[in-house]
Design goal:
about 675 residues; about 15% helix; globular; Jelly Rolls; twelve-stranded mixed β-sheet; eight-stranded antiparallel β-sheet; Rossmann fold; alpha+beta
């Protein structure tokens, strides 16, 4: 890692640049700008997210945006409406009004005398969504984007649902956005109106997960903002970036297949981070790599990047599962296009516990998993939101013993796969509704089992996420389960294990009733997208601008504990995170966040599933001490989901606002 203190162009920083909108509102932005941009205009790179530019993302922003500014760009961190110090309200994720505001802001930025008229967008997670969604609106100045850890499909490939199964990460994110939408602006930026702005946010914003839960199938609510509805709407050059350990990977390869314009992809071993912060595995020089992208599409420099292989990917191997010390080996390789021209298919048949080319003797197998199956799965998106706790998958052996497993013998030759494995089954269940989880594992010589990839399927969604239909108990049907895209090399001497279960808690919400699966292996095959070859590729070591001045006053801490109440049969996962107290020195502000999440289920009773979460966020500068406390409970029973929530806001020791919600929403084939 290299910290750069000198750049080709000197930089000025504007802590708050006000961007006016036609309706009189203003958006607040932080800007890093070449000092001489007034006489030598530059393109602008915009990151638009709701996570508070002055006291939320400031430490990460400082390690990213000034580097590009020093190389001849206006780097702009924009707070969307209703967040940070920006006017307006933040009512939900990815609303049309947000996209309208960004399009208007881009036009205003492009017209500044310090801007060349060309703009780009970058973002990770929310910001990556925003870049894709705004690109589909075709604002005239937008020439290129970099979208990291995002998706093209808000229903089936986002934090909310996977294969029609409700994800607990989506419930957790619901607690996060609920805490986010009602925070205060800073009086040192907005002046005396800060309290009125805060009270309006508190009074008019709601509890977004309530609205999400009213849409349990892929309807127009989720199609909005899903650029897969019309890939052709995107004309800007798209650089799609992510990591195999992240929850958002499948969309990268779909974008490479379907986007009509200039495109490029980078997929490393990482989770939900920019590649220059990459973990697990090694970070890369993403800022240098991104600069070549911006130079080509925002400045028109013919640097050859558009003639290079379109995909740079990490071929994983020797994965070491551990909730905290997760590691993975491998190497970089490149492909010219997606789907890759050299991909083949290895089709393995399922037998009586076997996985082989011929499958052996056909058998009929019955299985029902304990609800505790899945406890070794970690989080759907580990280390999301800056988490530092034990969130990765663990050794899969316990979950394997609770599943229906099929296994090859020791491999004589390596098997490398690239893409999405697909399991095709003939099955029935004894209930109208059920789910299956499918894991593809590598079993080491010492018995350690590592999850290479996995997929979920709500069986009511077997044919459609828009028009689900219950199963007919006892009737055999053919279904296909698509596992997540992956690049992985199984080593010689190791075994490939396929594990099938009827539950996967706490990653996914259980079906309403315990179900027993019947599987006929005569019609069961696992198709692996085998890969041979690929070009060589490499990246520079990461560079960073200097860190933002900040100081820890109290240390951070985290804890993740899984306990079993033997008498009650309850499995309880408790996750606690505390950022400590951090002084952001340039604004003299101390910030702190604490969160607690508890996921509980009683064995044999899917209706007992519940998630309880609390978030406390506070700031302090002298006598100014705002604080919010939000609580959210997501539970089920009697064919319904029940959501209870509350928010309290405080100025110092005085409570200034309180509101509660209690909603019961029928389950709709989930």
């Amino acid at each position: 890692m290299t910290v750069r203190t000198a750049f080709p162009r000197a930089i000025d920083e504007v802590r708050t640049l006000w961007i006016p909108l036609a309706d009189g509102r203003r958006l607040a932005a932080r800007v890093w700008l070449p000092t001489d941009a007034g006489s030598d205009p530059v393109p602008a790179i915009v990151e638009s997210i709701p996570y508070r530019r002055l006291d939320g993302t400031v430490l990460g922003d400082a390690l990213t945006h000034p580097w590009w500014a020093g190389h001849g760009y206006a780097a702009i961190r924009l707070d969307i409406a209703g967040s940070g110090d920006s006017d307006g309200l933040l009512l939900d994720e990815y609303l049309a009004g947000e996209q309208d505001d960004i399009c208007e802001a881009l036009a205003w930025i492009a017209a500044r005398p310090w801007c060349s008229g060309a703009t780009g967008m970058i973002g990770i997670s929310w910001g990556g969504f925003a870049a894709l969604q705004v690109a589909a609106r075709r604002p005239p100045s937008l020439r290129a984007i970099v979208t990291c850890c995002s998706t093209d499909d808000r229903y089936n490939d986002d934090v909310h649902y996977m294969g029609g199964c409700l994800l607990n990460d989506g419930v957790s994110w619901g607690g996060g956005i609920f805490s986010c939408v009602s925070r205060w602006p800073d009086p040192e930026t907005v002046g005396e109106r800060w309290r009125d702005m805060w009270l309006e946010r508190l009074g008019r914003t709601g509890c977004p997960p309530i609205g999400w839960t009213r849409h349990q199938r892929r309807d127009t609510f989720w199609k909005h903002g899903s650029v897969c509805e019309d890939y052709g709407a995107i004309e800007a050059a798209v650089y799609a970036v992510g990591g195999w350990t992240d929850g958002y990977t499948n969309a990268l390869l779909r974008l490479m297949e379907h986007l009509p314009g200039p495109k490029r992809a980078l997929v490393g071993p990482w989770t939900h981070v920019y590649p220059h912060f990459g973990t697990p595995g090694e970070p890369v020089g993403f800022l240098q790599d991104g600069l070549r992208w911006w130079d080509r599409w925002l400045k028109g420099i013919d640097n050859g990047i558009d003639r290079e292989p379109a995909l740079n990917l990490w071929m994983q191997e020797d994965l070491g599962p551990h909730p905290m010390a997760f590691h993975v080996g491998g190497r970089w390789f490149s492909e010219t296009a997606w789907p890759p021209p050299r991909n083949g298919r290895l089709s393995l048949a399922l037998g009586d516990g076997t996985l082989s080319a011929d499958g052996g003797e056909a058998v009929t197998l019955r299985h029902g998993s304990p609800l505790a199956c899945g406890a070794g799965g970690g989080e759907w998106c580990p280390r999301d939101g800056g988490g530092a706790g034990p969130e990765y998958q663990g050794d899969q052996r316990i979950d394997d013993r609770l599943s229906l497993c099929f296994e090859t013998g020791p491999l004589e030759e390596p098997v490398a796969i690239l893409g999405a494995p697909v399991l095709r089954l003939a099955l029935s269940i004894d209930r109208p509704r059920g789910m299956i989880a499918v894991r593809l594992n590598e079993v080491a010589e010492d018995g350690r089992s590592s999850r290479v990839t996995y997929g979920l399927l709500n069986l009511s969604h077997r044919a459609s996420h828009e028009t689900p239909e219950p199963m007919t108990p006892g009737r055999m049907e053919r279904v296909a389960v698509r596992l997540n895209d992956v690049a992985y090399r199984f080593r010689p001497g190791r075994r490939i294990r396929l594990a099938i279960s009827t539950s996967y808690w706490p990653i996914a919400w259980p079906a309403p009733e315990p179900a027993t699966l019947t599987l006929d292996t005569r019609d069961a095959r696992l198709d692996l997208p085998v890969h041979d070859g690929g070009g060589e590729t490499a990246f520079e070591a990461p560079e960073f601008p200097p860190a933002h001045p900040a100081r820890a006053i109290e240390p951070a801490g985290f804890r993740r504990a899984l306990t079993r109440d033997i008498g009650a049969g309850a499995l309880v996962l408790r996750h606690e995170e505390d950022t400590g107290r951090v002084l952001i020195e340039d604004i003299g502000l101390v910030v702190a966040k604490r969160s607690e999440e508890t996921f509980t289920i009683v064995e044999g009773d899917p209706g007992s599933a519940r998630a309880d979460m609390t978030r406390v966020v506070e700031a302090a500068r002298g006598d100014w001490r705002p604080r919010t406390e939000t609580r959210l409970t997501f539970a089920c029973g009697d064919g319904c989901f029940r959501i209870t929530a509350s928010i309290e806001a405080h100025e110092g020791d005085r409570r200034i606002f309180e509101r509660r919600w209690d909603e019961t929403i029928p389950r709709d084939h989930v």
